[in-house]
Structure prediction request, 513 residues.
Amino acid sequence: MYSSRTCRRGMARWSDMAARTKGRIRYTVDELCAVYLNEDAHTEHVARLALHLFDGVRRWTGLTRYDRPLLEAAARLHDVGYAMDPRDHMRKSVDIVRSEGLAGFSEQRLRYILAAMALHQNTGRTAYQSALLDALPQPKRGLRIGALLRIADGLDQSHIQDATITGMRKAGETIWITVRSPLSPENLVRADDKASLWREVFPLGVRFEQDTAAQGDVRLLRGGLHRLEAFRRLAYRQFKVVRYNEGGAKAGADPEHLHDLRVALRRLRSLLKLYRKPLRDTWAADIERRLGAIGDALGPARDFDVWLARVRAMAAERDMSRSRVWRRYLTYQESLVDTYGAQVRQVLDGARYGNVTREIAYLLRAQVPERVKTGPHKPVEPYVARRLWRLSKRIAESPIPGGAWEVEDFHAFRKECRRGRYMAEHFGAVLGAPVRRWGKTLKRMADALGDLHDADVELERMAYEAVAPPRELVTSLKAQRNKALNDVDAAWAELKDKEQFRKLKRALKEHGA
Prediction:
């Protein structure tokens, strides 16, 4: 599965480097990262966090200055084997560094680096890790270095490099670490989880707190960023939303987990579709296609969640003891909960979903970083501006929704508006205020069309159900459909505002459209 073109390129690059450095016994950290297609953005950020943490806590922990270069090397190399073996990248990373050697480090110091690398995953102590520790003159020293690396790795759980350590203080027997992570607050939760090794090897406890000071302008993207690096950051953020909501979606207690998961899948698909051309020789197109099938498989369960919430809300307003029709209908709807829940679990526990999530991770951690490092620097703004302008023109030139439009026409136009909205939201930070405003306009249109779509789906649902719905539920749904049509008309008038469109055109032209 993973013996891909990316791995073959890595091996070819290894052969080229071997020829250029004939006679050298060991490679540097930078050379190993280049040969093995390391995810430098992540590991370099982890190294910065680890060294900042080291410098702040050294005086309280007994760490020495000789540990610092070992920690830095372990942080830079802890994922170096990912492109070669994603499923067991920890062991592969250790094996690579052990077999290749490392310039500037003696064999004994190298063994400390290997042990720390092996400890970066938050797993119970394995025989493999124990063997590496047993080979050390001072196993506790290796554990301490590994404890710092593990925390730093947790602080970039998001893989978008937004976490910064802004303060460290000792209070009693606890070290408090203040972290600014405005886009990914879950990084602090993950770091606390991965601090289990710290608590095992240091006498002081450790706690993490969010930096609540004014954070100013927080952006995931900046002007002039490489277009593929912009993709990597945006896609990683959506991918993490998907993974975060998997458990909740399967449990089914809160329908928002399934909603957030499906929205993140759609946003991720929109990015893959936008980047089809620059990612044409990766797994992106295949991933996009399969995410569409997964989203479609989860759609009926999400539609049912919306429907059940509506039925429950209306039923709560009625005296159920005096309405046999409502009581029978609500009981029937509640009986379907387990059926739809089983469908969600079947999709998310299935091999198709598991395979595609692993391939997304490989795309973002190996294939895209390789192209960022080896390809020409092409800024994100012109690429996105041209595509958003073409899509926006097509949307604005569409005939007014209604009249002879079929349900499928409304749904297709809604998807176009949603794509434009996602593009504006993803890239508005670098394309300017008119683009962000246009995104809000498209959102209003997409929301109105979404309400219309929900009403159509729910009216069709009631027509084929085994239990007849209450008459007032049908009446209410038809009224909602009429309201949605009025909302579509209002959103259309805003969409056709000429002044807004002129400002959008000017902003996109300034960025190369």
Remarks:
- The chain is about 70% helix and 5% strand.
- The two ends are 39 Å apart (CA to CA).
- The beta strands are 164-171, 174-180, 205-210.
